[in-house]
Amino acid sequence: MLAVAGAEEYAAELPRPLVIQLPSLTEAEAEARCASWRVAGEANNLAPWSAVPAECAAHVRRYVTGPAYRSDLELVAREASAYARALAASGADRAADAWVFDVDETLLSNLPYYADHGYGLELFDHREFDRWVEKGEAPAIPSSLRLYKEVRDLGFKTFLLTGRSEGHQGVTVDNLKKQGFHDWDRLILRAAADRTKTATAYKSEKRKEMEAEGYKILGNSGDQWSDLLGYSMSARSFKLPNPMYYIP
Amino acid sequence: MLAVAGAEEYAAELPRPLVIQLPSLTEAEAEARCASWRVAGEANNLAPWSAVPAECAAHVRRYVTGPAYRSDLELVAREASAYARALAASGADRAADAWVFDVDETLLSNLPYYADHGYGLELFDHREFDRWVEKGEAPAIPSSLRLYKEVRDLGFKTFLLTGRSEGHQGVTVDNLKKQGFHDWDRLILRAAADRTKTATAYKSEKRKEMEAEGYKILGNSGDQWSDLLGYSMSARSFKLPNPMYYIP
Fold first, then answer.
1. Alpha-carbon distance B68 to A48, whole Å?
2. Fewer CB within 10 A of the end CB, N or C, for chain B?
């Protein structure tokens, strides 16, 4: 049989004394299952989903409000930064080198909104979320802001490619600038004609247009697999964590 | 600022009393960083790596010998199973439907080998590993065995596509059968001519050959991104966890 732990090894993994310190094994098992669900999402193993499973609501809340989310965001930014620096050091003609950034949960965080809506436990409410977006108060994700500035400073063209609608252009520009994001080369919002497309299709089309203009998409940062997959994919993609919602 | 936790919120996340029960914050931070590293690998965010980072050796050992690895494996198998059943229920002509399985760390586990070699902390030693393979004693991953049988029973053609060399055909067949894997349609091992190719290139070529024969690759299960990416990709891929080694 496989040498992964049965119940007896599992007990051996826990700090002692067992009884007082820890949640019941059932709770521990639920926690393991929710961590598995979250990691499966990051590995793109899940079927499309519309809300966080009820039994994982507490896990997701703890994750996004605790140190693990920040740690995960920071590690992905560091990997992206190392890759960007290696490219910049190559010395070749880099005028066409481009990096694509998604906006929500990539450059800006909507955690204050999701804190009021069960961190993904509630079904997504477009109107409510639009009201939040229109406040223009989404904070920067610090590790993404550092990466954004570095990528700019290294000479990459920076394209912000968001599923937000064109009607939110003004508030999005203001929100980004207020949070320290400046000097992007292009901010692409979703036109009315793109509204019925999946994010994967819409974003692939926009990346293809960039390539047709001669840009080489070398990096792409996004919290959804639909930011990264499809066609005209980036040479390398960076999947930021997001267990709160799924966009096809 | 982003509403993810600073040090004060972090302390609030921990069960109390803090001092006696838990490792120092430094150890907790190291644990968070190693979990981030592991999850980043699952999300394909890492640059190629040749060994587990020394500071994460204990984390990886605990993960693969504890309940989290088993839980992650089981969840991925359940997702794959649900997808396979949905496809089988479609009722269309399914004679060409195929599922590709990798072997090592997908159908069979080499944990007994890696237990003797630091769970990925040591650099990979081809000769030592070959000696282990030639014993033919790799146990089945239970959730993968269940998925394999179900996929077979649902009528998919099953192609086992492994980076093992053709010289290991006999021992691999024996090992698989001894562990309960039977009736695959094809076992594809790496020929001498394929030895210098990356796994991504070799496996893409073999998938392309399947397609050229008329098969529709609908599912692909593998523990390496190089099992899943490249060209002639499966309609849906299932990334099994593996923080012990990376194959390009």
1. 23
2. N
Which residues does chain A have within 8 Å of residue B69's beta carbon, measured at their own beta carbons?
A: 4
Chain B: nearest CA to A37, how far in angstroms? Answer: 7
Counting the structural domains of chain A, the total is 1
| A10 pLDDT above the threshold of 50 | no
Q: Give the closest-approach CA distance of A180 to chain B in angstroms.
A: 11
Tell me the β-bridge partners of B220: B100, B237
* pLDDT band at A30; cut points 50, 70, 90: confident
State yes or no: pLDDT of B40 exceeds 70.
Answer: yes
Distances (CA, A) of A9 to A207, B69, B151, B203, B244: 49, 13, 31, 36, 20
Q: Which has more pLDDT, B16 or A84? A: A84
H-helix or E-strand spanning residue B219: strand B216-222
Return the CATH number at A60.
3.40.50.1000
In a domain, B149, yes or no: yes
pLDDT above 50 for B5: no
* Host domain of residue B223: 67-239
Residues of A in contact with B36 (CB under 8 A): 68, 71-72, 74-75
Contact B123, B243 (CB under 8 A): no
Minimum distance, in Å, between the CA of residue A141 and any CA atom of chain B = 6
pLDDT tens readout for residues A158-192? 999 999 999 999 999 999 999 999 999 999 999 99
